[in-house]
TrEMBL record:
The keyword Isomerase does not apply. It is a multi-pass membrane protein. It comes from Gossypium raimondii (Peruvian cotton). Magnesium transporter that may mediate the influx of magnesium. Keywords: Coiled coil, Ion transport, Magnesium, Transport. This is Magnesium transporter.
Length: 329
């Protein structure tokens, strides 16, 4: 007789957990303090309250387009190597030890810490400092988002500059000397340009799509939604906001008054719109540089084809002349 041994529920739970590989995350709070986590996707989903389909957007093994997605209590950010989840209180950044991710972690550590001038009171700071603080206040999630956008736009701009620096001299050399070596060099540069253009276009599309929809932008106001669901008053509301250090922001002044922002009209997205438009213009400028480079490559190819056609015609004429000579013989 065969005996069936009942499965131990604890064993099944253990097996299930082992089936889910853990991932490395860096968690940064509003003070810039960083904690490293090595947890599975269920722990992350529970921590930030998002669905598995949203977390899949951040899977480097899956090909998802660049995305800035607002959820109830989080922003899911997939921009090139920056794969992050931003809440009203912390930033979770995936694979923080990656070559291109380490600088992003460092930028967040530098720029997320704030000095809460509002809560320090006039005895701690002067009136001019209070006024300056009023002009710079911005929700935590926007400060984190700006670091990510600044990092990714600068990264792609740097890659574009590297490509321009290599491509323009190579194209000029090819027009001076048509050779297999120069042709192969330009061919590789053209392939690199095509790939880089696609990457820049994806980031531009993500920003444009967000800018085209006020409801999508409103979803990114996490602190405002948090305040609406859990009302606070007086100095408690001010705790969600503080002075934002300068990180090379393209915005001259943020919306005045953190209280107005947190309790403002849910349809008022002006502050975020200014932020997104600034980086949209930057990434669009990078795309324009790549478009100009593509046109230069196309013009060079046209020139080379004309030269090759001329050489071909000359060769045909020479061959024809030899053929006539041989015919006379």
């Amino acid at each position: 007789m065969t005996h069936v041994v009942p499965a131990d529920p604890q064993v099944l739970v253990t097996v299930k957990k082992k089936a889910q590989p853990s991932r490395s995350w860096a968690v940064l709070d509003s003070n810039g303090e960083t904690t490293l986590l090595d947890v599975d996707k269920y722990a992350i989903m529970h921590r930030v309250n998002i669905h598995a389909r949203d977390l899949r957007i951040l899977d480097p093994l899956l090909s998802y387009p660049s995305t800035i997605l607002g959820r109830d209590g989080a922003i899911v950010l997939n921009l090139e190597h920056i794969k992050a989840i931003i809440t009203a209180e912390e930033v979770l950044l995936r694979d923080p030890s990656g070559e291109y991710v380490v600088p992003v972690v460092q930028e967040l550590q530098r720029h997320l810490p704030v000095v809460n001038a509002i809560n320090q009171g006039p005895e701690a700071i002067g009136q001019s400092d209070v006024e300056a603080a009023d002009e710079c206040v911005s929700p935590f999630e926007f400060r984190a988002l700006e670091v990510a956008l600044e990092s990714i736009c600068s990264f792609l701009a740097a890659r574009t500059l590297e490509l321009e620096t290599a491509a323009y001299p190579a194209l000029d050399e090819l027009t001076s000397l048509i050779s297999s070596r120069n042709l192969d060099r330009v061919r590789k540069l053209k392939s690199a340009m095509t790939r880089l253009t696609a990457r820049v276009q994806k980031v531009r599309d993500a920003l444009e799509q967000l800018l085209d929809d006020d409801d999508d932008m409103a979803d990114l106001y996490l602190s405002r939604k948090l305040a609406a669901s859990s009302p606070v008053s007086g100095s408690g509301a001010a705790n969600w906001y503080a002075v934002s250090p300068t990180i090379g922001s393209k915005i001259s002044k943020a919306s005045r008054g953190s209280i107005a922002t947190i309790h403002g009209d849910e349809n008022d997205v002006e502050e975020l719109e200014m932020l997104l438009e600034a980086y949209f213009m930057q990434i669009d400028g990078t795309l324009n540089k790549l478009t100009t480079l593509r046109e230069y490559i196309d013009d060079t190819e046209d020139y080379i084809n004309i030269q090759l056609d001329n050489h071909r015609n000359q060769l045909i004429q020479v061959c024809s002349s030899f053929h006539d000579i041989f015919e006379r013989w």
